[in-house]
Structures are given as C-alpha cells and as structure tokens.
Amino acid sequence: MAYPELRSAAEDIAFVLDRLGVGEALTRLAPFRDFDTATLVQIVDEAARFSREVLAPLNAVGDREGCRWRDGEVRTPGGFAEAYRQYRDAGWPSLPCDPSWGGQGLPIVAQVALQELTAGANLAWTMYPGILHGAYECVHRFGSPALRDAWLGALVSGEWLATMCLTEPGAGSDLGQIRTRAEWIEAGSDTVRVTGEKIFISGGEQDLTPNIVHLVLARTPGAPAGSGGLSLFLVPKVLVNGERNAVRCTGIEHKMGIRGSATCSMAFEGATGYLIGEPHRGLEAMFAMMNSARLHVGASGVGLAQNAYEMAARHASERVQSRVPGAAEGAPIVGHPAVWRLVEGQRVAVEGARLLLYRAALAIDEAHHADTPEARAQANALAALLTPIVKAMLTEQAFQGASDALQVFGGYGYVEETGISQYLRDARIPMIYEGTNEIQAVDLILRKLVRDEGATLSQWLTWTRVQVSEARGIGALGGFDTALADIDHWRALLPSIIALARTTPRAALCVAGEVMRVVHGLTMAGLWAQAALAEHRAQGEAGQGGDAKRRAARYWLKFELPETRRAMAIVAAQIRDPETAE
To answer: b/e string for 391-401 if b means 16 or more Cβ within 10 A?
Structure first.
C-alpha cells in the first residue's frame, strides 16, 4: 500500500501557481504580462529535473567527502564543479535579473521555486550560488555606474560567485562590534584598502568559478561607533586587471552538516575594495542582500522538509511490521495511527509552508512592479512582515520534519546508510544563519509591529479573516469557526502587545517567539482557507478532482491550530503580569 498523498514538490508548486492565483497575479504586473502560469510551471519542472538528476546524486557525496583546504585553496566535493557548470550553462543564475544586464527578467517567485528545489536535493551545493541573487540586487540597486559596468554582468551570468562578509570573531549578530577597517586610497575616491578578519563565510573560497565577489562590511577612519558607522565594499578575489587581490582563505570549518559547503575564515590584508552606496550606510545596502537571503533560506527549509517527507512516506508505505489495528496481517506501518500522524503531519507542514513561501515571494514581486506607488508600498510592507516569519518558521518546520522523518525510519534512520540523518544535520543550520530565528522574532515584534502600530498586520488579518469566513461553508471544516474567533481575539490583544513593547520592551521580547507563532498560525489559517476554497471551487467547476487540500486543512485545524492558541495564551498572560527576566 503506497501512502496516498505522496506528490512531488513540482506538482504542489504548480497548484500554488495555478489554483491559488499566484501566476495570474504575476501577469497583472507590467514586466510579466507575457508570462503565463504554464510557462512558470515549465520552468519549475525543468528545475525539478536538474535537481533530481544532477544535484541529488551528489548530496551524499558532499556529506561524505566534505571540502578540502590547503595553502589558501579549497577543493569542493567530487562533481560539484561540473554541476555548477551545467547550472550556469542552463542560465539558472540569470533567472530574475534585469534583461538590460543579460538577465531573463523572470519574477522572484520563479527564483524561489528554483531555490526550494535545488536546496531540497542538495543544500550544501545550493549554498554556493545561493547568495548570488542577493549580491546582484545589492550591486544593481546601490552600486555606482562604474561598479555595475565592471562587476554586474559576470554576477548575472554566474561566471563569478559572491559572498556576504559580515561575521567576525566576537562580532556575530552584533554588527556594531565589527573591527574590519577600510582606509581610503585617496581623498574623494571610492576605493579603499580593507584589512580585517571575517569568519563563517559560505563559499569564501571554492573551485567553481575563477573569481569571487566579496561584499564586506567595514569601518572607515573617523566613522561613528556602532552599526551606523559601517560602510559596504565590493572586494574581489581577482581584480579587473587580472591581479590576485590581497584576500585569502585561512581555513575552513568542520561542521555538523552541509559538509560540502566551504565555510571559510577570510583574511583581508590591505585588499582593494570599492564603495557600494554611501559611506556609513552599509547596512542599508547589506539588508537588500540579507532580506533576499532570508527568503531563500526559508525556501531551502521547504525543500529540505519536502525531501525528508518523501523519504519517510516511501519507507512507511513499504515497511511491514507488526499487526496494524483494523488491517490485514503484513500491512505497511503507515497504517499505524502513530506513524500516520508523523507522516501526515509532515505533509501538511510542507504544503502549508509552501503556501506561505510563495505568498511572500509574490509580495516582493508586487513591491517591485505594482502599477501605483501606493500598491508598491503596501506590498513592500507585507513582504517585510512575512519575511522573518518565512525565515524562522519554515526552517524550524524543516528541522522538526527531518526529525519526524527519522522517527518513521526508527533505528534504520539513525544509521548513515539510509540518508535521512543527513537531512536532520543539514536542516539544523538554516535556523541559525542569516540572523537566528530568535533575531527574526525580535525583528517581527519591534520593527514590523511596533513601528507602524500594527497597521500592516491588521490589514493582513483582514484578508485572513475574509478567507476563513468564506471557508466555513465547506463541509467538515467547521474548525474555521474557531480560527475566526482566534483572529478576533488576537486583534483585540494587538494594541496591548504594542504598548508592552513600548513601555517594557524586555517583557515583550520574552514572548517574541510566541508572538511569531501566533502571527504565523493565523496567517496559515487564512492560507489554508484559501487553498481549501480553491480546491473546492475547482472541483465544483470541473465536476472532478481530489480533496487533498481540504483534508490537509482539516488536519491543520485539528492538530496545529491549538498550538497557536497556546502561544496566544502565553502572550496574554505576559500582558497581564509582565516577566522581564531581569
């Protein structure tokens, strides 16, 4: 007996693009009016084929071999460089880039699908080109004309890869402690000599491309203390004249997971660098890169969870063990209620995460290309609200999903031969890099809720409430009545949460994680309602079709929504009697 809900990521992405109207919404944006949903689905299918046939066979190879460092040079695992050559030759790096720079002009939605599929097949490999789009965005938006002319084309084509150099020994999340310095070569120029040490730099050295563009945060002479005094510089491995720049890899980390990704320590020894943007406004330019990275980290979480789920579902469908209640002798273990809960919970989490991921990606496309300034501003605010939720909750779900998948395998999952343990190890790092998930929760409550008095969240909850209200009429989905009450209760609490954050920020931040979970849960109520409605309407129009989304929504309402209510109760208790951890 095969688990009946096993479907590929590409199939479910197609559902989101088609049935949930993401593709149709994109065609209303001026740059994408010539792209229909069928075109996007074809791109997804080809990305799935590349991931399945080229990257997936290298996943265990990268984990087994790791990277090798010697005398400043790094060798990636066998097959990685050839896979990148195929990736570049196929034009994947240029997917969302400006056509005037050689890009294909496709939406961010397509780029996110590519990230999900490649990361799910091989996260360690995907980390090499993973930061490329963020680097492109940074240079494209903030670089001078001369800087764009010299460096942007090779980034768009993928001829060169890029890194993001923030972290230093003793200066991780607290960027104000950065000590790397940049000294102007001459007054009035945009060229500097960069000196300092950076650590945890993904792809800081590799053998996939002949050049690497490092984007480095550093402090210029006389700059203000703290993060407000930082500037951003483009520091290439190889200069335009072909000379090797004074930057070298001093070693690589030996890690719990993503062993095929070179995590480097980098020494900048008076290296030539070029200013990006304005002096002392480096964080503004860097966050253009980091926000892109955070969305892509969330996509990686979905990909990892999808592949771990597929492995668990297949194993549960094939593994025959003790007698299943109500089934014949020799039935697969998926018939056991406890195993079914593990497998079905993974399915619902993965498909729900995908609903959120592509809604956030659509908001970014709308923020860039909507017809009016007001529409662009509204979409930008929604994208800013959803991005920390995507990064934090989707990576948390990936790790939990990989753990549940290993549990399905039992003892066989704990040995390396089955491969599921690699997914568990690899899925742990996305919860940490690009800003830990705790930082995402702080960002949500202080920067996204307090800053606009909850206006963006209130508008989003209005949309959510409409979806939930309409879905109540679908049979067997009465749980949406409870979800509706939860939305109203949270909206009533919101002014008190904002007041607490203003008057006693420590008390509010003690429950930042619970605030994140509530906003995520109520968001998912709206998205599951939308998905169930779309499936219900399609079945009514066509007179046929399945009910997988409605059953997933029913599962979520029964087994997951109560966790949102629990988090809401903790927040309410903190409002009544603040605990400040002092």
So the answer is: bbbbbbbbbbb
